[in-house]
Amino acid sequence: MKKLINDPRMVVREMLEGLVALHPGLALLAKHDVVLRSDLPAPASRQVAVISGGGAGHEPAHAGYIGAGMLHAAVSGDVFTSPSVDAVLAAIRAAAGPAGALLIVKNYTGDRLNFGLAAEIARAGGIPTEIAVVADDVALRDTVPKERRRGIAGTVLVHKIAGALAELGQPLATVAAAARAAAAATGTMGVALGACTIPAVGVPGFTLGEDEIEFGLGIHGEPGVSRQQIASADAITDRMLEIILGEGGHDAGARVALLVNNLGGTTPMELAVIARRALARLREQGLIVERAWTGTLLSALEMPGFSLSLMAVDDDRLALLDRAAAAPAWPGAGIIPRAPSLAAAGEAEAADETMTSADRLGAAVRTAALACAAALEAAEPRLTELDSKAGDGDLGISMSRAAEAIRASCSADRSDSAASVLALLAGQLRRAIGGSSGPFYAVGLLRAARRLAEGPSTGLADWADAFAAGADAVSELGGAQAGDRTMLDALLPAARALAEAAQYGLPPARAWSLAAEAAKAGAEATAMMKPRLGRASYLGERALGSPDGGAVAVSIWLDAVARR
């Protein structure tokens, strides 16, 4: 286990100290792990105090939601452990006045016991105190009664509803009733791709296979309701929404708010893919998505996974969600377009350069190109692995996209000459491949096509010249030379072998085989070259031992050409 902490026994306190040090609107109680607003007025002038909390490990919940328009205080226990009665009571006494306090409690036994007893003591001491329990986990619909379900990410929306009403000066009974109604109108479903590790434990809470996910889990590192084989993001999202919507109350025309929550280890890229599908699916079902948020809102340490929360809204509830909140972690208004906006291109797409050569080799070049496509597609896993060792990892998918572009070009193009086919391939690859590979292959093919178009292009010497011209173009564009551990360390030996074969009058089939062998040897030699250009250069000697992925890709497609 690797954690950036000092002492597991002090991690919660130090985390809260850091949070308060970063935000001037927050204060930390000296003797309890309780964070509260630093701008609270004298008790007699206070609004209803909205207080939440629970175990740590759910950051930015709960202290991140303290601020005008949301919580007045948050109580933190140890990681995934309910805070003590005394800590909750200290929060009530520090934040509440005669208007009383509302405790928003996630439906776990420890939280209900400790918050419940603290509320009872507070009432006995003259502080009106109510509790709103959040039990939004629909994954447990077939396992436990509704009132015993867990409280998970939908709690954040309940914070917002209650906090907005308290900020408006509403009485405790009104704030509590609205919070309970909002909790009842919310359903949440979670899924994990892996477990999290509690600092004091040091090992993950469960183990998943490479192709497994935990479906319907809570927020305390526990396993889910079922273990399933991983599917696409769209399929997982659809299944989760099916279960949430299965609760009823979301007929066509219903208005909802959506929360796409990171459980800790999911990238913004993945969350956006999920949000895209969730919005589309809800709209397909005839629902009106009034507001949507995405981000890390209530996590489970570093757990890779996400949850979806759906809250039914009307004008009143929507107005409360829309009210401004000064809490550091509240993600903002959540206003979304009614439909995705796709802008038209600002200008016509640039046309590919066209050229012809004095030959009838277009069909032969297309056949060779298709062989290259098949070879690159089959090599995607290997190229991805090699590129990952250089700190990147996109070469495999780039070459797979190149294969798709080659097929598309060859199926649509019926040009007779080699130069015309190569020029069209240059344009297709330029558009299809991102990163550095696209420009390199495009410039190499385009320069080779120009050489073939300049004069005779039927002899091996002409093709050797064109190949060398293409390699030179790659070198000029990127600035690399032989020995820099790049694709040129395969291209340049192949160009020399082809030129020598032409000089000695070898048959074309033998010449291309020698070029492919030279490219393979050149690619293998890069394993002992220290990179001097590109992202691999940042690794220095740590890159030694594995060949350069770009050079290997060259050797793969040249071998395919030779075999054809």
TrEMBL record:
Database matches in InterPro entries: DhaK_dom (IPR004006), DhaL_dom (IPR004007), DhaL_dom_sf (IPR036117), Dihydroxyacetone_Kinase (IPR050861)
SMART domains noted in UniProt: Dak2 (SM01120)
Molecular function terms from GO: kinase activity
Keywords: ATP-binding, Kinase, Nucleotide-binding, Transferase
Keyword check for Iron-sulfur: no
Domain (DhaK): residue spans on this chain: 7-330
Domain DhaL residue range list: 363-563
Domain of life: Bacteria
Keyword Cytoplasm annotated: no
SUPFAM superfamilies in alphabetical order: DAK1/DegV-like (SSF82549), DhaL-like (SSF101473)
Protein name, UniProt field: Dihydroxyacetone kinase family protein
Protein source organism: Bosea vestrisii
